[in-house]
Amino acid sequence: MHVHSREDEAFYVVSGVLTAQFGDERLELQAGEVAWLARHVPHAFANFSDAPTTILSFCAPGDISELFREQDAYLDSLDGPPDRAVLAQISVRYGVTPVGPPLL
Question: pTM for the whole thing?
Answer without folding.
Answer: 0.82
